[in-house]
Amino acid sequence: MKQFSEDFIWGTATSSYQIEGAWNVGGKGLNIWDVFSKLNGKTAGGDTGDRACDHYHLYEQDVKMMAELGIKAYRFSISWSRIMPNGYGAINEEGIAFYNNLIDSLIAHGITPWVTLYHWDLPMALQMEFDGWLNPKVADSFAEYARVCFDQFGDRVKHWITHNEPWVVSILGYGQGVFAPGRISSDEPYLAAHQILRSHGKAVNIYRTEFAHQAGRIGITNNCDWREPLTNDEDDKRAAQRALEFFLGWFADPIYKGDYPKVMKDQLGDRLPALTNEDKELLYGSSDFFGLNHYTTMFAQHSTESNQENNVKGNGGIFEDQYVKLSVDPSWAKTSMDWAVVPWGLQKLLEWIHERYNAPEIIITENGCAWDDQIDANGVVNDEQRVAFIKGYLGACHQAMENGVNLSGYFLWSLMDNFEWASGYEKRFGMTYVDFETLKRTPKQSALWYANVIKQNGIDS
Ligand code: GAL
Questions:
Q1: In whole angstroms, what is the distance from residue 406 CA to residue 361 CA?
Q2: What does 269-307 look like in DSSP terms, one character per residue?
Q3: Is the Cβ–Cβ distance between 395 and 343 less than 8 Å?
Q4: Which residues are paired to 409 by β-bridges?
Q5: How far is the CA of 410 from the centre of ligand 1 (A)?
Q6: From CA 171, how far away is CA 179, in angstroms rounded?
Q7: Residue 335 Cα, ligand 1 centroid: separation in angstroms?
Q8: How many domains does the structure of the chain reveal?
Q9: What percent of the chain has pLDDT over 70?
Q10: pTM greater than 0.90
């Protein structure tokens, strides 16, 4: 039996759009997922988060359930448009009250809240008015929203995460167009990521200067798969390293090293926006812990061509900028998301982070697996696969800690079954994404087009 220290943080995680429902009540404004999920072909089966787990209404019983499960830490996100329906300016008191009640209830049940400010549900108004994360103004709006949250909840919330997985927002939202806001472009991921990073820096600065008396901690959560060199060939080793720097270094280097990775700057030239000295100052050292979401591993192989093969949906995405070919070992088990189960990949990733970023305190803010329940002959759920997955990944954590990695917490994704973005609520084989035509428009054109969809669907607010 492997032992973790007494003070190791164990928790579960969720996000607002995936569980809250109540998309158009309580004074909430529309967000990009409210609209995106209603567009033809964007989610499996046309599923939306309109109702989801109805956590907005059922939070009390959900918190009781957490307490019964023995959960001591709970990571959730705040819906920006529930707090500020237009993304900036007026505050929605009903939204504030909801999160106050949730936080109070968690604390009353001995559960420590870990709050993410942005888990992908940008207020629609900011998409329409400013083209979302492409616009530096949105970084300022985020800082304003963050200030409201620190001010309203910071007396009780001592663990903040600014952003969840900016890589996903940038690549899937602005590169491949499979997540909101559905943009397809080779350049926009770098622009969106740049503003997300700036917004993180601004929010952290506000927290540290204006709310120091709250004595909490703040960080960012990045996601990264492990990339294992396919062969011992130096070219493949360099390819794996390059892939990791394009994945995680993109977001973590500015925070831990003061600038984007050199390999990205060399490869991308002007396509990668430059961080100004002011940005660098705000970003450097701007995370009190290294938030990490990790799900899977792939092999990396040097490729001499820009790699369209791994580029799931046409031109968007940064895969074609890396000259890396990805693959998996067919013998690896896969979850229902088709993600390979490779516990040693997590150990290697933790050790890579430890080395590259000078032994930061790491907290795994998400890890987990999607599988149907396994029901045994007596009709009892016996999730052997899930148990094996968690055992394997926790074993990898433990091994990394024995090798010196400073890992202090683990949050299992997820507390409950929920709306899994473009995959909807259940695994449906052979799902296809359609309707891409609309997404190749300029930001202004898509704003107008979105406006039209909103009108046609009677979902104006
Ligand atoms: C993460 C994301 C979560 C959830 C999870 C997989 O990328 O932060 O919201 O989608 O993957 O279930």
A1: 5
A2: GGGSPPPPHHHHHHHTT--SSEEEE---EEEEEE-SS--
A3: yes
A4: 9, 363
A5: 15
A6: 9
A7: 13
A8: 1
A9: 90
A10: yes
Q: Give 173 Cα–ligand 1 centroid separation in angstroms.
A: 14
Single-letter code of the amino acid located at 413: W
Return the SS3 of 239. helix
Task: Give dist(CA 244, CA 298) in Å, integer.
Answer: 11
Residues 200, 254 contacting (CB under 8 angstroms): no
For this structure, is 210 an active site residue? no
Contacts of 430 (CB under 8 A, 6+ apart): none
Model confidence pLDDT, tens digit, residues 102-150: 999 999 999 999 999 999 999 999 999 999 999 999 999 999 999 999 9
Q: How far is CA 428 from the centre of its chain?
A: 23
Mean pLDDT of 56-61: 97
Based on the residue annotation, tell me whether 366 is a catalytic residue of this protein. Answer: yes
**Structural domain of residue 243, as residue ranges?**
2-460
User: How many residues are present in the chain?
Assistant: 461
Q: How many helices (H) and strands (E) does the chain have?
A: 17, 11
Q: What is the pLDDT of residues 243-277, one digit of tens each?
A: 999 999 999 999 999 999 999 999 999 999 999 99
Task: Give the CATH number, domain containing residue 73.
Answer: 3.20.20.80
Residues with CB under 6 A from ligand 1: 15, 18, 164-165, 168, 223, 293, 366, 413, 420-421
In sequence order, the 6+-apart residues with CB closer than 8 A to the CB of 54 are: 20, 21, 22
> Most distant CA pair in the chain: distance in Å?
64
Q: In what order do the strands lie in the sheet containing 324-327?
A: 226-229, 297-302, 324-327
From 87, 153, 167, select the one nearest 114 (Cα to Cα): 153
Of 420, 423, 425, 426, the one to substitute when testing ligand 1's pocket (max ligand atoms within 8 A of C-beta) is 420
